[in-house]
Amino acid sequence: MDLGSYFQLVRRQWWIVLLTIIVALGAAGYLTVQAQPRYVASVTFFVTSPSQGVTDAYQGNLWLQQRVKSYADLLRSERLARTLAEDRGLGLTADGVQGRLDSSVETGTVLLRASVTDTDRTRALRVAEALSTKFVDLVQAVETPPDGQASVKLEVINGPRVGTEPVSPRPARNLLLGGLLGLLAGIALAVGRGLLDTRLRDTETLQRTTGSPLLGEIPFDAEARTAPLIVGDSATSARAEAVRKLRTNLRFVDVHEPARIIAVTSALQGEGKTTLSCNLAIALAEAGWRVLLVDADLRRPRVADYLGLESAIGLTDVLLGDVPVGDAVQRWGDRSLLVLPSGSNPPNPSELLGSKAMADLLTTLRESADIVIIDTAPILAVTDGVVVAVQADGALMVSQQGRTSRTQVGAAAQALHSVSVRVLGCVLNMAKVAKSEAYQYEAYRVVVGARPVPTDRASSRRTEGERAPAGNSTQELTRLPR
């Protein structure tokens, strides 16, 4: 993956980054509020040698710098801590004193800085004052021989003093550090989740997984829950326009061998194949085609429910020979759309759909309609969908964005290819469309202000590639044979 791919992963899951930053800022703020203020009292010593002459000034200065480093360790020693702890006014043990002391040496100088950090500002100053005298006495005792003069002299040149503001916590620094850590953690989580997520997220992955061209990308529409069909107000929605694009692309898949019987299927249930089948049939009928929609999902039929038709008699009854096909087919609305519901639920759907009666029925339907759309069962759930697709001219794979995994879609496509089913193409359903694209469509629709063309004038809106076969465009729908 290149840098752009990682950027897309982070952009797609921006909410993870935002949530992580918010949590990190909250944690940093909580720790800052709960932390006790800490004050630092400091004192600076100057180290010199009383016996140092001008001639050996350079060597003496190097020697003193080495001694200052030793004094920094001595300042943090247990011996000094015990000496300071003897002062009952401080109220600290030797370990308590040692834990509060720190030292630093300014490089290239003979300056030694001692600091005392405490949550009590007054006590920090008192420890620093005691340190300024006790440490000088300790160094003098160490450096002075029993019968001679001290070789080193310490002088306090700055302090003791304590700051008026606490050195910690620092709200601005803590929040900045927390936000930065949250950002880095959020990016890592977003990239990791994106790499582990095998669900379909884009059209390129869908095409690569199915090995078939992309024929449509149906945008997500919240109103589709209550109004799934592209009629009425939904006829001018972006979803309806996407279905019309699918209609056009489907007619141009193979102009030399056009598919007249199309099986619409999916890998899993709930991916919107039935809704797409109904809307595709409606869009084809609007263009003047004689369309027959067949509900071949005999286990969970939904076509009749969506279209508001009677489902008691349908495909099952026709295949069993109980009802002639002409009596089972129903006309929907004022369009050139006929619907064959599923009928009663059979105990053996796969055997019924793969029977000779089904093959004979498809032959009859081919001669009675320009296009037959068959809604089938999900491929990975049962074998019904594959059985129907084998008998059709081609199959249309429907996959829902963000729900179906690449493995599931690949397995469904492989199931179709393994029995030599002609996969016409794939459709990405409930896709997230960029706001810019949605805005362009809405703006164009408002500017044009065109009203939907009545159904009886639909044939005048056909493009050259969408014209019905000669001899059928002006004929009335013939009644299917009994």
TrEMBL record:
Transmembrane segments annotated in the record for this chain: 12-33, 175-196
Biased composition (Basic and acidic residues): 458-467
Location(s), subcellular: Cell inner membrane
Membrane topology classification: Multi-pass membrane protein
EC top class named in words: transferase
Reaction(s) this enzyme catalyzes, per UniProt: L-tyrosyl-[protein] + ATP = O-phospho-L-tyrosyl-[protein] + ADP + H(+)
Keywords: ATP-binding, Cell inner membrane, Cell membrane, Kinase, Membrane, Nucleotide-binding, Transferase, Transmembrane, Transmembrane helix, Tyrosine-protein kinase
Record-level Gene Ontology MF annotations: non-membrane spanning protein tyrosine kinase activity
Matching InterPro entries: AAA_dom, Bact_polysacc_biosynth/exp, LPS_length_determ_N, P-loop_NTPase, Wzc-like_C
Feature: compositional bias, Polar residues: 471-482
Residue intervals of the Polysaccharide chain length determinant N-terminal domain: 7-82
Disordered: region residues: 455-482
Main location: membrane
Record has Coiled coil as a keyword: no
Domain AAA: 260-401
Enzyme Commission (EC) number: 2.7.10.2
Family: Belongs to the etk/wzc family. Belongs to the CpsD/CapB family.
Protein name stated in the entry: non-specific protein-tyrosine kinase
Organism, scientific name: Micromonospora cathayae
